[in-house]
Amino acid sequence: MDPSALNSPELQNLLAQEKEKAMISEMISKLTSSCWDKCITGSPGSKFSSSEANCLTNCAQRYMDMSLVIMKRLHQ
Amino acid sequence: MDSFSLPSSGSPPKLSTDDIMTQLRTQLEQAYAEEFLETVRGKCFDKCITKPGSSLSGSESSCISRCIDRYMEATGIIGKALFNQRH
Lengths: 76, 87
Description:
Chain B: It holds the Pfam family zf-Tim10_DDP. Chain B: This is Mitochondrial import inner membrane translocase subunit. Chain B: GO terms for molecular function: metal ion binding. Chain B: Keywords: Chaperone, Disulfide bond, Membrane, Metal-binding, Mitochondrion, Mitochondrion inner membrane, Protein transport, Translocation, Transport, Zinc. Helices cover 74% and strands 0% of the residues of chain A. The longest helix of chain A has 31 residues, at 9-39. Chain A contains 2 helices and no strands. Chain A has 76 residues and is an all-alpha fold. Chain B is mainly alpha-helical and 87 residues long. Chain B contains 2 helices and no strands. The longest helix of chain B has 32 residues, at 17-48. In chain B, helix 1 packs across helix 2 (58-83). Classes of the chains: A mainly alpha (76), B mainly alpha (87). The interface between A and B is medium-sized, with 33 and 36 residues.
């Protein structure tokens, strides 16, 4: 393989995009795991109750809020 | 994760950017699928197999089936919640 192809801006750009997508996927994966543990306390049903579904949504959004709080705190 | 497998031939392979990205995306998808599988196994084992018997009971089997569906649904809910933020 032509080694200079590895330095191409096009490839670097595509790799950066994939890296970002991978980080997002990983965040969703970890958050789903955590929020499942917090919100789905009983045996899984044939659909989520509205309280379970709301809990999952709240869980993700509170995580984002927390993330902001932490960032702000660490930048003080 | 497996290392990339390059096509073997006599002459040096000419890998395009497309080839590299296609291999990368394929391997990433495989890695995600394996990770998801592993997570679902763990969660559903904990939820559904509370008292291991000498075989999987009918209720354990239906619990597992519901568990997989719910976990996939949960993944979608979390994904949507993360990107529908209203501040």
